[in-house]
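Aggregate trends can hide what the representation actually does to any particular protein. For completeness, the protein is quoted in full, as a sequence line and a line of structure tokens.
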Amino acid sequence: MGDSYQEYSPLLLRDLKVTIKESSLIFPSEETLTHESKSMFLSNVDQVLNFDVQTVHFFRPNKDYPPEIVSEMLRKALVREMDVYVFLAGRLRLNPSSGRLDIDCNGAGAGFVTAESEYTLEELGDLVYPNPAFVELVTSQLQSLPKDDQPLFAFQVTSFKCGGFAMGISTNHTMFDGLSFKTFLDNLASLLSEKPLSTPPCNDRTLLKARTPPRVTFPHHELVQLQDSETTTVFEATSEHLDFNIFKLSSQQISRLKEKASETISSVCVRVTGFNVVTALVWRCRALSLVEEEEEEEEEVDDLEKESTILYAVDIRGRLDPPLPSSYTGNAVLTAYAKAKRKVLLEEPFGRTVEMVGEGANRITNEYTRSAIDWGEMYKGFPHGEVLVSSWWKLGFAEVEYPWGKPKYCCPVVYHRKDIVLLFPDIDGDGKGVYVLAALPSKEMTKFQKWFEDTLC
């Protein structure tokens, strides 16, 4: 059975007592701004990701690198890094001639903030639990700037009383996907150590430009057209009360799920991976959490006949022909999907659910990717499904080696979104386990947990 724990609000710090010490803008060199083009094309994959992603990277105290020294090192390294990531200092603009979002590489500056908390790192408690107060460790809006001139990238260094500190990074999702952000962090670590960039970035987003003329050659059930042109984000936060629950799966439990799936899987084309079995587990639990209890037998039958769709991101760098450079900075991911009636997820062997997840990823070929990009050229729309699995599990943010050591833990700042289930790396154990974070209404959470435990048996 997977370990789980729910919100234990008395033990959560509601206020980290963070005070901003200094807030400023940092800029690329004048020489870089002179030679760089003034506008960066954004692909159709980038276009639908106009929202901020905020991550926090916690570090233990290191007597050789007190927070004030670290802050100055980071400021200087980021200025140097912006010479190759010049778009970090730009602004998102609507191009009036094309009606598309571009990044205006105008050198308006990125945010850099230093702050301090009245607490020690240990007093923050369990870093895995999605404490809403972690939002105090990131800056997304600079008070000194008007709303239409906010930076796309802001970096906050917050020191704790013990000498530990946190790097809080806010980036607009149009700039990076998870893998390219990891490359950005690796390059930052190299510059901090006075080394060359580990991986010089490829900033050419036209590599994912739509074909002329666009050709949609596949049905794209994972995409839906925008009915409201003012809706610009993929998933919206909700004000509905949600219960948070974190389910911990050890590497041994994941191995058992893989064995369970392998017993009944029939396709030789589908790999039984850790991601596939955990995603299949999440899909089954989320779909069945929406089925009414048997006291309303007729309603239960109707609910089981409803179709469920799960979405998950697939890296397309190596799936294209020719492949994208591994150093591509933009969003080189496509939303894969699997769909089935809830009845199938209830009655079919677990291996069949894993098989459908794997088939969804296998669907993402070069032609399918180009078709999806062309779909975005012809229609305004975004991915849509019953649940999205957002995996931070194997991105490797906690493996980046800075001069002061690797992070103690890295996590996104979590908001109330019941249609997104997050996968986090295990902070303890052998590092091969995973935390599954779900946020659901109470009744649905109870059923989600029941099916989670049932599937593990």
Q: What stands out?
A: Residues 228-233 have pLDDT under 50 and may be disordered. The chain is about 25% helix and 25% strand. The longest helix spans residues 67-81. The CA atoms of residues 174 and 292 lie 39 Å apart.
